[in-house]
Amino acid sequence: MQPVIRNYFREILALLLAGMLLTACGGGGGGSASSVVVTANAGNDQTVNANATVSLSALASSVTGSTIQSYNWQQLSGTLVSLSNSSSVTAGFIAPVSTQNTILRFRVTVTAVSGDVATDDVDITVRRGFIVSGTITPTSGTRIDSDVNDPAYNFISNNQLNAAQNLPNPVTLGGFVSTTGTNQSGDRFSALADPTDYFKVQLAPGQVISLTVASNTADLDLYLLSTSGAVVNASVGGAGVNETLTVPTTTTTVQDYFIEVRAVSGISGYILKVGLTSMSVKDNGYQLTSAFVPGELITRFVDSRLPAGVKNDSLSVRAQSVGMQAVSGAPGRSMLMKVGVQAQFDRTRKKLKMNQVSQASNAELQHKLNTLLALKAMQGRYDVSDCSLNYIYQPLATPNDTNYAAQWHYPLINLPQAWDVTKGSASVIVAVIDTGVLVNHPDLINKLVPGYDFIRDPVVAADGDNVIDANPDDPGDKGYGFSSTFHGTHVAGTIGAETNNGIGVAGVGWNVRIMPLRALGVGGGNSYDIEQAVRFAAGLPNDSNTLPANKADVINLSLGGPGSSALSQSVYTAARNQGVIIVAAAGNNASSTPLYPASYNGVVSVSAVDLNKQLAPYSSFGSFVDVAAPGGDASKNLNGDQYPDAVMSSQGSDASGTISYTYGLKQGTSMATPHISGVVALMKSVYANMTPQQFDDALASGAITEDLGTTNRDDSFGYGLIDALSAVLHAQVLAGGGVAPANPFLAVTPGSLNFSTSGVNANLEVRNAGTGTLTVTSITEDSGGWLSITSGSVGVDGLGQYNLTVDRTGLNDNIYTATITITSSVNTVTIPVIMQKQSLTSYDDAGLQYILLFDTNTSTAISQVAVSALNGSYSFTFPAVAPGTYQIFAGTDINNDGFICGTGEACGVYPDNTPSQLNFTLSADLLNANFITGFTNIASASTLTLLIQKQSQGVLSLKPAPLPK
Amino acid sequence: MNTCKLITVCLMVVVSACTAGGSGNRVVNLKPVWGSQFCGIQSAAGLQLLTSITTFDNWSGAAGAVNSSLPTVNAETFSHHDILVIQMGQQPNGGYRLSLLKKQASINGQDLMISVRWQTPAPDTMQAQVITNPCLLLSIPRDNNFNSISVYDQNNKKRFTLKTGSE
Q: Among A558, A634, A656, whose Cβ lies nearest the Cβ of B41?
């Protein structure tokens, strides 16, 4: 305040003096008239980032002559912010996010106790927010169902065949179906159902169509229809079952088809894929093309849940209660029932309350489709504990012997699988000490090595001479009876009948050979003769005064008696010490009485099982049993073929007076024993040096048996039922010194190629997927010119990378197929290739993408945009983003539940989902936040359910989302 | 010889002559038709009398399930004969066999007595460990007056009896 002039001179002088004093005392803002000077200081101007926490401090303010009473901060200009602690010396605010740099001006007012006041201003410059933008590209071949539940997405119904949605090939499509309205306000299908989606697509033979069902409780089925709408294939699993089917290979050209996704029950999103070839098909057991008997279902009811009138009665009444015909079985166990066609199937449908069934393209497919859908209906019944198709099983290696189909005892021990490993060696010899062998039997004549007849008693030998001799031909043992057993011929046939010769039976050992030795004749045999045969077979001195050119590897003794002696034990010990594995029958006494020689030390004793792997009712048991094998039970016919469940092999008949060569059934531990001998022979074929001890150890370890009965060893089955496959694989390990043998195997990836409409280049990786070495000998293709193969990085063995190139020049619009064949020194691999030439442009579309900017520090989505595809991609921009760390998520909300990236929905994330980079730090504009979305992408937060905010009008808010789950 | 003894002898002769035509030790010729150690699946031990081609077909249907060399029999066989099936029942090894011991069977009263060799394993012998169902089929003339058939083994032990009801 300026001093006042009272008189002219003195007053002017006083004022001057007062002024000088005031000046000397400092201040510059004012003060009390008396002596108070208040100085406000709002701090220095600042430049901050958007979203920064800014602190305004007036600490530098001061008062003289009084004390500061209060502070007051206020914003004078700029984007309004929320000031905290505005009445404190220090206030704060969060810098706003803006698309431009902005200046915020603040003023602090400092008030002294004296009432004196001073102010000061400060400018805070807030840098603009960064731009985050990018392009999201759907994975190639992505499409969206044109009628999904999200009301924000363009809607075109595809619920009728004539409104089928066109699809490219290959394609990955996200879709939605429902059997009822969702009852959710805002849903497109709130009131009405979306029961089916039809798609039209060109498909090549063998292509795979798969349907992944999002909901665990919904039942969606997949149909492939001809252009007339008839079913040509179907996959109709139950609730939550993913469906797969292949395009029939009955045609060789690309065809038009319809694909139908049908909701059977529930509401669910789904992912439909077309394009892979049949190499990757997994049979879910509900496919029309699965190998099952049309019209047959195997059912087991829950007895306690059957209606009163149905419970305790016959198979036929139970079958009728579900509209089917009875075939076999009985209450209390599985029943085989028949599902009919036409009128009879109508009865089944009514009893099971089934919907109408689609029309199939032929009668057999219709019958199978009826069966599949009846299966589903049965599986959903309260009174059914289990229902399955009657599958048709094919062995892996199938001999063409006439009676092979009756040899159920071979698949029982995984013998066909073992034959894929080895078919035995002709250098392996199994001695059959028995009644001799019909040496001219057509199924044995080519499988024999020289044998011997050791029967001394001419009455027992019945061969017209009274000497032991080198003729093991079985003259018959009928004695006073009417016909002979020709037992040895049956046993020898099981071990080594000529296999895959179009007649007769197959033998376990396939190529192994038989040394026929006679020791049983009329009325049986005796220990001495048998033991001479054992010595001969083992290459030990014997009464014949001869030795075989090659001793036997295995001795089979399907015989026995109650007597034993130390002397006899020594014979078997000596034979075993020669490296011969001795196998003998445990006996048919249905008791634990030991039989010999099976019960001697060092002899493998064999009990018998039936087709159900149960101990045969006649089989002996006891501590001496080492292993079990099929011996049969002719009182049963469990597999429903024309034969009782006995062992089929070669045999003879002399009932007519002359010997005829036949095939027939026998049962007993006699029949079980040659199964073991044959498997041992297969093992010896793989590992010639296998010792008896090694075989015993393999048995005891459980490595070559299926454990039946009590775990590990028991008196009924010994160490279990022989497993021929495990046995030969174990022999391979032994042969390798305990290490699996070199087993080279050519493998090629990918297993199929689909260049779609625009693919030009691809690579094939050709490698040895096993051990050891192999060489690629040729690589060819049959495209006719549009596909070419060149070597990339390839070694001298032909393994490595090959480059494929497609040239569509001059081709008409169509789908083209080719096969690449890669041949090696071990195996050949074929790779199917599909390519499409399409002139019309069809853009990928993953549906309306909700794109969230996710702050990883606060775990909130701070911004959201929704974008539809334009020319196959999505462009997005977040115009002003504060510095920080973020992720960007994009996805569809097909089912309109408010969450993206759910099961069956499109999803993508930026940055890519790698452990090293789960987020990005924003300190400058990011203009290339490009990433992929699609129905096969799993975002890094695949367990993260991202809530999006929607309004009923489809205008999207930018409210932050709650914490993710 | 005194008169009393002579009259007694004559009377005995007359009595013998009177009884010879109705009963007593008549002889019937038997013919083996077929036999095997593998007859049927679980053939119960016992006798069966097959009186027609139909009953034979029924029996062979079961027996043929495990045996492919059944006998050839036609309807003519049954015009004057029946076929008796003697079944030993299921046995645990190959040491069991049935064979005809005597080709002639005698009728005692009204019982046809047939002798067979009922073979079982000799002690301490080794046997093939195969399940057997030994049987023997015999052709029996139909015109004989017997209403039962009994089978005896080589030790004269009666093994089976079958009421035939024939007159």
A: A634
